[in-house]
Amino acid sequence: MFLSFQKPLQSLQLFVSTVFFLCYIGNSHLVSAQHPSIAEKGLDSVEVVRERSLIPGETMGQKMESLLFWSQEEKKRRFPHMQDIFPSIEVPAGDKIYRLPSGESLSKNLPPDFLSQYIRENQVGGVIVLKDNKIRLEAYGEGVNQHSVWTSFSVAKSVTSMLLGVALKEGDVESLEDPLSKYIPELKGRDYGKVTVRELLTMTSGIDWNEDYADARSDVAQMYQRPCEGVEPHILSYMKPLKSIYQPGTKWNYSTGETDLLGILIQKATGKSLAEYLSEKIWKPWGMEDTAYWLADECSLLNLGGSGLSATLGDYARLGTVMLKEGTGGPSHLFADQWAHNATSLLFPTGDDGGGYGYLWWRFPNGSFAAFGIFGQMIYINPHTQVVIAQFAAWPQAGSKELSAKRMAFIQIVEEELQRMGKE
Fold this sequence. Notes:
By secondary structure, the protein is an alpha+beta fold. It has one domain (2-98, 132-423): 3-Layer(aba) Sandwich (Beta-lactamase). It contains 18 helices and twelve strands. Strands 3-2-12-11-10-9-8-7 form an eight-stranded antiparallel β-sheet, sandwiched between helices. A four-stranded antiparallel β-sheet has the order 1-5-6-4. A hairpin with a 5-residue loop joins strand 9 (362-363) and strand 10. The termini are far apart.
């Protein structure tokens, strides 16, 4: 089935790339060029040009790579406007909204100043807590509100995994044991071409990769740096020559590049952008409230599977409710059952605490699981307590053991207090 979409998708990529190029040299950007009303909600064209000029790099890929080293003020200013600054594709919401009613407030039972201190000290843009699909806590930092969108970084990896679960259910992706070359012909004859879809989902390809965010020479800091090779995605050009150093399926190694490849696979298999597929399969039918945006590669205009999704805090929480209902092991109407049974399971241990990794979802020893993104992004789900916590932030560092520990302490306090309130 996927083969019938290859040529139409390539033609669309070439057309959209041309449109973006014309928009870019005309000091606009893909989303606002196609949908002028968006500029009214975000940055206007003058602000976009100014903001882009302040970001180091000659190409959009180089500018995007620089975000690992933005100042604190730059992160706070740009994270809510990534879709204005970089090429993006809309994820339209539908007419029907999945309402999140308010429940008994958790705020009044927390220690004094606990919430405001957590937000202030951890540079949190917003945090929301659902219990049994009811809002028990919702708070925002300065200048952020319920309709503000915020980039999610690697939270998008888990969403890309969800879309793979849908594509597997619908037969666009036929088997998790298929080699990548079946869906991405450019990988034929390459080490990555022999890697299976399952190994990509679990980050166990065995291909050499360095994900050190503090190292400007690491793969994750270099993957979008090179000039475009026609309309081939940046990441495909970068990853095609990479070599295997471990037996596939045996060693877990975190790789944003591999989730970008998974995004390419889904787009080639379905003939739709990740943004379009997400809107069609999840955003509209599951009642997301606001339009979201997904960053696109400047060369191909394919969405980035490993990052780049921007949405409101409430819609991130709604994604958590989708996983509660459809992605925790039982029969699923949305996902292939084999995906749902394994996605949030402990498939590969990743530390000494008993936790690990499933299909691009982090798994904890108590059965809860989460999608995490650098700089403090999160969707946390506990199917045993029916708790969902979503957060977006602008941490001072991309990753930090201290900040991660504070986030987990926040989760623990919230869950303990909700349990106590339930007994009253």
